[in-house]
Amino acid sequence: MVTLSRLKAMGTFALAIALATTVAGCGGGNTAGGGIQDTSEGVAATLVVKEKDDQEKTLEIGEKIVTQYIQDFRESNGLTDESAWAQWMADNALNPADVRSQVISYYKDELLLDAAAGMYDVTVSEEEVQESLQEIKGQFESDEAYQEALSATGMSEEEYIEKVLEPNALQTKLAEAVEADQGGNVDTDAQALSMAQSMESVLDGSRRSSHILFSNEDEATAADVAEQLKDGSLSWDDAVAQYSVDEYTKESGGDNGWNSVSTFVEAYNNALVELNKDDISDPVTSEYGIHIIKCTDVFTVPEGGITSLDQLPTEIVDALRLQVENASSDTFTAWFTEFSQNAQLTINDMPEGLPYNVDMSAYEAADTNETPGGDQVADGSQPETGDEAAVTEEEPKDTTPEDTEGGQGEPVDDGQSAGEGQSADAADAAPTQEGDGGADAADAAPTQEGDEGADVPAE
Q1: Are 89 and 360 spatial neighbours (Cβ–Cβ below 8 Å)?
Q2: What are the beta bridge partners of residue 207?
Q3: Is 257 within 8 Å of 315 (Cβ atoms)?
Q4: How far are the Cα atoms of 112, 151, 241, 335, 337 from residue 52, in angstroms, in the given order?
């Protein structure tokens, strides 16, 4: 079943997590705000937003860009034939008006973000965008590796900049401006220290570890390597380089971070807590393979308790700060939600003669096990704040420490006012045209496609 839904962009560094997750898809006709408001072929909808002084501003969504989006989708998914297009809509409990409304809702979200940025005079310079791009490229071993990851997203570099980097940078600056204006400045270190003090019982005895990961078929090799490590005939670094199939941690000696701020599979964690510093475990089997674990450090809460962040390992401090920063984004989320709810979207009647407006009277939904309306056209979820999760495909980071925080916005149900219940995430600034089925972000596919059964955003 062909689907068209916007993927969650996983933050500015999503592409840099080598082939781990797609950043955003390539949507048809997705141009900048001026393209959205091209009314040369009529006005599809009007959006009225309230600015800071309660003055109203009216924006328009042109019929041209909506039609182009739908036509691009049809072409890229083999639905140019009217009968195929009508059958696809019937199978998804849609009609041409529904499809049009979904695409309008998507472009509404783009206009809301642009309008919010305009209210706070927030812009993103070319220098800032290029700096982000170079930082991403620098996280790849070679330009070829970067180009391979970029190709997996289905976008050119120009499209990636337009649909991911620029919206992410814009939202980051907008969030900072809103939080400053709304009094949302936070003493990150003070709150991180308070959090650490409340977690003393959890942090006490924290263990940092590295591992060597073998496939499940390599029991004999794992046992032999463990024996050599313990008798000193093989060094840990050499063993990691030679045997570990975990490419993500291989370059750092197999480092998996601290168990107090990371999530490990049960078998791994149970073995780790039995180790003292520099101890090496026997082979430990989990659903991800066979691990040899080395405890590289142990943290003990100082006598008298934690009184300074300087007493904590750097990695634990960084994790605590990240949690505080994510929580502080609530100010922006609340503001943007209210801003979106106060916006009024009016969808005009669909004009005659649109190329995608075909007669569906002779078509019925195919007899499948799918829920009607499951495969939809455009996800109109609003941007979220905070750092988005970057999921990696390498074993330990799916199973062990998670060093990034994330969130995912919910789609807008039918009848819901613009942006209701939404949080803001400029990374969601592009729709995705995709083929059948799709992988969840947690599956760490290099080209993450929209899940079958995506909800329908509509006004």
Answers
A1: yes
A2: 298
A3: yes
A4: 14, 41, 57, 11, 14
Return phi, psi of residue 255, to 5°.
-60, 130
Full-model pTM:
0.50
Q: How far apart are CA 126 and CA 34, in angstroms?
A: 18
Cα–Cα dist 44/100, whole Å: 9
Helix (H, G, I), strand (E, B) or coil at 172: helix
The distance from CA 434 to its chain's CA centroid, rounded to whole angstroms, is 17
Helix (H) or strand (E) segment spanning residue 291: strand 289-299
- Max distance between CA atoms of the chain, in angstroms, equals 81
The whole-number average pLDDT for the span 356-369 is: 81
DSSP 42: -
Helix (H) or strand (E) holding 395: helix 395-399
25: phi then psi, degrees, rounded to nearest 5: -95, 175
d(CA 290, CA 292): 7
d(CA 427, CA 362): 40
> What is the Rg, in whole angstroms, of the alpha carbon atoms belonging to the chain?
25
Confidence of residue 88 (pLDDT cuts 50, 70, 90): very high
Q: Contact at 8 Å (CB) between 434 and 379?
A: no
Picking from 376, 374, 390, 373, the residue whose alpha carbon sits closest to that of residue 427 is 390
Q: Residues 295-352: pLDDT tens digits? A: 999 999 999 999 999 999 999 999 998 888 776 667 788 888 888 889 999 999 999 9
- CB-CB contact of 268 with 400 (8 Å): yes
Helix/strand/coil for 78: coil
* Residues facing 69 on adjacent strands: none
Contact indicator for 404, 390 with CB cutoff of 8 Å = yes
The residues pairing with 214 across neighbouring beta strands, listed in sequence order, are: 290
Q: Cβ of 127: how many Cβ atoms within 10 Å?
A: 8
Q: How many CA atoms lie within 13 A of 146 on its CB side?
A: 16
Say if residues 353 and 296 touch (Cβ distance below 8 Å): no
Q: Are 392 and 250 in contact (CB under 8 A)?
A: no
What per-residue string of b and e applies to 54-73 under the rule 16 or more CB within 10 Å gives b?
A: eeeeebbbbbbbbbbbbbbb
Average pLDDT in the chain: 74
pLDDT at 333 (0 to 100): 81
